[in-house]
Amino acid sequence: MTSHSIEIFERVYLCARIEAKYKASRISRSKVDSNIEILESHLSSMRDSNEYDFHSSLENSLEFKQVQGATIQLDDEELEEYRFKEDLNYLRVDNICLDNHLIEGSKTFGLLNGDARFFLTRSKIIHVLDRSLPSASLEIVFPDVKKKKFFKRIKKRIWELVRLLSLIFLIYLLVVLVSSIDFSSNRQRVRDWSSEVSKNLNSTTLYLKSQGLHNVARMTIGNTNRDYLLDTGASLTTVPQSYIDELIKKGIVNPELDFVEYAQFSIANGATMQGSIWRIRKMNIEGYKVYNVNIAVSPGEKAPYLLGMSTLSKLGKYSLFPEEGKIVIYEK
Q1: Distance between CA atoms of 17 and 258, rounded to whole angstroms?
Q2: Average confidence (pLDDT) over 196-202
Q3: What is the pLDDT at residue 269?
Q4: DSSP secondary structure of 38-63
Q5: pTM of the model
Q6: What whole-number distance in Å separates Cα of residue 18 and Cα of residue 199?
Q7: Which pLDDT belongs to residue 125?
Q8: What is the CA radius of gyration of the chain?
């Protein structure tokens, strides 16, 4: 028995959602009010249908015998919303909604929305002996699209794998590089640096001026400023009598409240002299404030200004660096 190949034509019935632009023209001397022509159309939300549903009659429907260049979108995930254009020989639209009307003379333009029913015709060569007919599905219409999408996904996965392996290799090289560095030699240096940073963050530095071989600090009492010679051998900070008189005159010192006592002081040559001790409620040493400091007042105009231990002890915990000309005060 010989087999014969014949060409058959089959219809694939489909349903979709249609959005289209239309043009309506008035028809004179006709029972029909107007002729509606679809200009552009887009069909989406595709789904399979059948011949019975296609020919079923519904109200509020329009039939179009010819629609040119309809854009059809496939929503299948594997096809990734594949689009193509197709000429439709027959299209039926249900549940029509017309809006956005624009009238130009005898013509009306607008948008058309609704549910579309249509079919696509495809030819196929089959053998007479093979009585199995192809199923009406989207795979008949687009036999090669899924293969192309499949190979495209495989290529993408291979490229992602190559990138991942490259990243792992770079991480491995970084680990090898870091492990080859000897950090033990720098460990003590890091500790010293950390300790120094900690001290700087929790300390205040007072910078002194140099006067010959001695260091001088600017002290402020009230609104008066004087330079005091740093003398760690002096138990009290010392000022001349004329300076305490100036402070009393300006109201900075109150004799009834701030006078402490009369006292005998020993000077460098071993002699003693009569003086007095006063309490300064607030003074400022190079921008750092101290309170309730006892100072010694020496008679005479030429008595020196000395920064002694009565003021330094009010700084709390501190370190003196004479060669660098600074006092570092460590906060509690």
Answers
A1: 99
A2: 62
A3: 67
A4: EEEEEEEEEEE--HHHHH---SSEEE
A5: 0.41
A6: 77
A7: 79
A8: 51
Q: Which two tokens stand for residue 138?
A: 């989207």
Structure tokens given for 63: 């039939």
Residue 164: the pLDDT is 93
DSSP letters, 224-243, are EEEEEEE-TT-SSEEEEHHH
pLDDT tens across 41-92, in order?
888 888 888 888 888 877 778 888 888 888 888 766 665 566 777 888 788 8
Closest CA to 243 of 233, 234, 253: 253
Of 47, 43, 44, whose CA–CA distance to 15 is shortest?
47
Reduced to 3 states (helix: H, G, I; strand: E, B; else coil), residue 241 is helix
d(CA 310, CA 293): 6
- Comparing CA positions, the residue from 224, 225, 228 lying closest to residue 211 is 228
Instruction: Round the average pLDDT of the chain to a whole number and report it.
Output: 81
- Give residue 136's pLDDT band: very low, low, confident or very high (50, 70, 90): very low
Q: How many CB atoms lie within 10 A of CB 237?
A: 24
Q: Are 280 and 254 in contact (CB under 8 A)?
A: no
All CATH 2.40.70.10 domain ranges in the chain, comma separated? 203-330
Separation CA 252–CA 236 (nearest Å): 20
DSSP conformation class of 304: -
**In Å, what is the CA distance from 78 to each residue of 47, 49, 90, 233?**
15, 20, 28, 93
The tokens describing 283, both together, are 């003074």
CATH architecture of 203-330: Beta Barrel (2.40)
Q: What is the mean pLDDT of residues 253-267?
A: 87
